[in-house]
Amino acid sequence: MVWAQIVQYCLSGITVGSVYAIVAIGFNIIYNTTGIINFAQGEFLILGAMTAVSLAQVMPLWPAIACAVVLTTIVGGLVELLFIRPVRQASPLRLIVVTIGVSILMREGMLHVWDEKVRALPYFTGSGVSTVRVLGAHVSPQVLWVLGVCAAIVAGLTLFFRCTLTGRAMRACADDRMAARLCGVNDRRMVALSFMLSAGIGALAGCVVSPITQTQYDMGAPLAIKGFTVAILGGLGNSAGAVAAGLLLGLLEVFAMSQLPVAYKEAVAIVVLLLVLVFRPTGLFVRRESASLRTA
Amino acid sequence: MRKIFALAVAAAVAVIIAGQSGCGKGGSKSEAEAPIKIGALFAITGPGSFLGAPEAKTAEMFRDRINAAGGINGRKIELLVRDTATTPANAISLAKKLIEEDKVLAIIGPSTSGETMAIKQLCEENRTILISCAAAETIVNPLARYVFKTPQKDSDAARWIFRTMKEMGLTRAGVITSNDGFGVAGAEQLKKLAPESGITIVISESYDKNETDLTGVLTKLKGQNVEAVINWSIVPAQSLVAKNMKQIALNVPLFQSHGFGNIRYVRAGGEAANGTLFPCGRLLVAEVLPDSHPQKKLLVEYKREYEARYKEDVSTFGGHAYDAMLIITEAIRKAGSTDREKVRDAIESLKGLVGTAGIFNFSPQDHNGLGMDAFEMLTVKDGKFALYEKKAAPATGRASPNE
Questions:
Q1: Does residue B253 sit within a domain?
Q2: Per the structure, how many domains does chain B have?
Q3: Is A55's pLDDT higher than 60?
Q4: What is the model's pTM?
Q5: All residues at 6 or more sequence positions from B286 whose CB lies less than 8 Å from its CB, including other chains
Q6: Same domain, yes or no: B237 and B326
Q7: Closest residue in chain A to residue B43, using alpha carbons only
């Protein structure tokens, strides 16, 4: 492989990886507060992007994205209020099944509101044919937008969870909900807040990746599966880890693609996921702290 | 207590059976006025919704037009439209229901090749006429007695692409296809026909039908120094190809399959879609055809009617459903009955039938009825479809009697 080609593969991997990463971050927020995985995260992305596409027809791009993020945040809050809060004996597994139900509901809802057509936001900078030249290879400027937004979200979240009282209270809820409650944390409010935050960030992610991936009502699930893989790979709850893992998985896939038939790309992702689960069995549903939810 | 309950159930069952047989008798009396049931399986949602949605709309429009004109042989058409969500498993269960419960005369659709192949055998075994709106050649080759299809042949599309490549002096092609029925069938045809056209396929790759970025696979093609990219798919990813090629500065001509015939793909592709070449039926360029062209009148009428009724651009896929409805209604009219065997034989005897995809000439050996001349090479100019100018007359394929 020549140098320029290696760079080109890297950039391709970063393009794909940046999309995975930004999707994965959303999983972490709700996990950080409740210890559950929100399988409707992909639908939050699509809802945000679809709303922005519709609003962009009556207003400039930036206000449209801002409004879409706000609206999706409200939807996230409603999802918590209507579907998560009323569940009795809320074991993590039960709540996860509820989120799967919510994802199906949202998908069908979006099909009725926006029909089956593929839409996309315009490129933020330039157009579909613009490229940025990096070390003899080319990449779309939108990829830089995705990476930039990723970095901003991670920095913001890290500050929020480490340095603000609300952020710390949210983390306390995940660690031990009963203890958090005894310390005067309004745990229900924290859970609602985490859903809103995660929906809002999902919507922002959906808008930023929309020019690259395009947006269709049923695209949330495939995106969420990849984002979920990445979230586990990076360590659930760790946003910076998710970004690193996203880029890593993107690069792995692309270099696997360069050596093997492209069809094996998905297999590579799954093998990586399995290896992580085998060698890091503290992964998915067995997180000790999530047991605390059962008593809530 | 249990005995009484059992008796009650038995009585209820008896009443229901009696009621049904009564209905059956009543039905047979009014047979002549009862509507003709035609099933329609379309991928209205899912990744194939680009195909299925306009197909379902077109079929409904066609039904309304026929029924408004008094039906066929004095009988109205009842169209039972079902959404397969682009899933072969759904296509199978819905087809079974249409055949066994609704007892339809014929099924039009499904939209995709994978779904059609899933129910080909089922329709054959149940002697139900199937007029598929999917493109893969394997639907009618090997031939099945009751299975027909309306879109042009894969192999002819591949020949058109190779011929145009040769005219442009290009020989090294990189092929990418989606990993669904349409893509797999296309990859096979391209591979089979490349040697006889003097084209070398340097690399052939398939990508997932939900793919959201193709820069990786295109980088692989770029590394092989391809002179042209051929993308063969019906999924939304096909509008990504043009963008991704520009983004990694892979500046060679892009050929798409006849699955590109929807202006939405062009819009989704944006500026990058300009210059894309693809073989396609004449529907998309209906207005620029010469008035003497036998398809012009029908194409323009269909386009206007569809666009007025649904406020969206017409696509070739809707045209495939138009042709399917046209073929089944013409065959019923010709057979003068709704006897399955007679209608089936009537389809095989249809000649010179002008449809949206071309002029159909069916025979017992040819259940597609279209030749090379059903295609034109189209390109995208300023975000619109246009005829590709440096077009040469087809060298192979059957000449149509009307041209």
A1: yes
A2: 2
A3: yes
A4: 0.77
A5: B295, B296, B299, B300, B303
A6: no
A7: A116
Domain for residue B2, yes or no?
no
DSSP conformation class of A36: -
Q: How far apart, in whole angstroms, are the C-alpha atoms of residue A177 and residue A34?
A: 9
Is the reported ipTM for this assembly greater than 0.95?
Answer: no
What is each CA distance from B226 to A118, B160, B250, B258, in whole angstroms? 29, 19, 9, 21
Cis status of the peptide bond prior to B142, with omega within 30 of 0: yes
Q: Please answer yes or no on whether A116 and B44 come within 8 Å at the CB atom.
A: yes
Structure confidence at residue B394 (pLDDT)? 43
Is residue A219 within 8 angstroms of chain B, CB to CB?
Answer: yes
Tens-place pLDDT, residues A100-147? 999 999 999 998 888 777 888 888 888 777 888 888 788 888 988 988
Are residues B383 and B236 both part of a single domain? yes
Whether residues B145 and B174 share a domain: the answer is no
Residues B264 and B320 in one domain: no
In terms of domains, do B40 and B188 share one?
no
CB pair distance less than 8 Å for B236 and A1? no
| C-alpha gyration radius of chain A | 19
Per-residue b or e along B82-102, where b marks 16 or more CB atoms closer than 10 Å to that residue's CB: bbbbbbbebbbebbeebbeee
More confident residue, B340 or B13: B340
Domain carrying residue B97: 36-152+292-370
The chain A residue lying nearest B176, using CA atoms, is A262
**Residues of chain A neighbouring B53 (CB-CB closer than 8 A):** 115-116
Residue B349 banded pLDDT, cuts 50, 70, 90 = very high
User: What pLDDT does residue B329 have?
Assistant: 94
- Give all domains of chain A, ordered by start, each with its CATH number: 3-295 (1.10.3470)
- What is the mean predicted confidence (pLDDT) over A222-249? 85
Q: Same structural domain for residues B236 and B380? A: yes
Report for A64-68, A126-130, A278-282, B12-16: range of highest mean pLDDT: A64-68
The predicted model gives B369-397 an average pLDDT of 77
The pLDDT, as a whole number, for residue B208 is 85
In a domain, B104, yes or no: yes
Q: Do B218 and B204 fall within a single domain?
A: yes
Taking an 8 Å cut-off on Cβ atoms, the answer to whether B219 and A214 are in contact is no
